[in-house]
Design goal:
Elements: H1 2-14, H2 21-32, H3 36-44, H4 47-55, H5 64-81, H6 90-119, E1 129-130, E2 133-137, H7 138-142, H8 157-168, H9 172-182, H10 191-198, H11 202-221
């Protein structure tokens, strides 16, 4: 299923022609004035850039499909803010936004590992590495450096209860997305798969996931 979506994406990339510097500048003027068609045109002409950048982050916890999806969010943000009159080509400007969104998603994936350990009934060291980032651990994901739990050595029942409480704070749709994305009580699904199952756009699924994670962290701090 994922291979079919990726092939469709690559086919779409192949049909998009690169823009000249003059075309980028003209579109940027319209985009900055709120012309969504101009924003879309800038973004669509640079789909190859997202695929190229996303490839660099493979093997770090997210599927290539999800990496592209996150990168496209950054691409759209860049297209809406790009000012071609400053002399920088759009690709050079957009790559920063693309990387930022992908790296933010990978950080969320660290929380994924914590929730997976909870759902599987595992115990783990609070300072054990999370996911593919050896410098990120469970303790860092849940507490700040001044927390009384910062010197903990085991995954405590108190922390597990906090996670349980945080999940209860979510509404039904948020719990559905969190459970599917983080693989709680079910197989982990990509955002594209969740979007298809729920009849939503991938960007909407990402927004729901991000809001749910923020609410969980807030609940765990209270």
């Amino acid at each position: 299923m994922e291979e079919n979506r990726l092939q469709k994406y690559f086919d779409e990339m192949g049909n998009r022609q690169l823009l000249s510097a003059e075309e980028e500048q003209q579109l940027s003027v319209r985009a900055l004035q709120g012309d969504q068609r101009a924003v879309n045109r800038l973004a669509e002409a640079n789909l190859r850039l997202v695929a190229h950048v996303a490839r660099e982050y493979q093997g770090q916890g997210l599927s290539y499909d999800d990496l592209i999806s996150e990168g496209n969010v950054g691409l759209m943000k860049a297209a809406a803010k790009y000012d071609g009159s400053r002399g920088l080509r759009f690709a050079g400007y957009a790559v920063v936004f693309i990387r930022r969104e992908i790296e933010r998603a990978l950080q969320h994936e660290s929380t994924d590992k914590m929730l997976e350990s909870r759902s599987n009934g595992q115990t783990r060291s609070l300072d054990a590495p999370l996911g593919a980032k050896p410098n990120v651990n469970l303790l860092q994901a849940l507490t700040d450096g001044n927390s009384p739990m910062a010197d903990g050595r085991t995954y405590s029942s108190a922390l597990e209860q906090q996670v349980e409480h945080a999940l209860e704070e979510l509404n039904e749709r948020e719990r559905q997305v969190v459970a599917a994305y983080f693989g709680i009580g079910q197989e982990h699904l990509t955002m594209a798969e969740i979007a298809e199952d729920m009849g939503l756009k991938r960007e909407r699924v990402r927004q729901i996931r991000d809001r749910a994670v923020r609410r969980m962290r807030k609940a765990m701090r209270s």
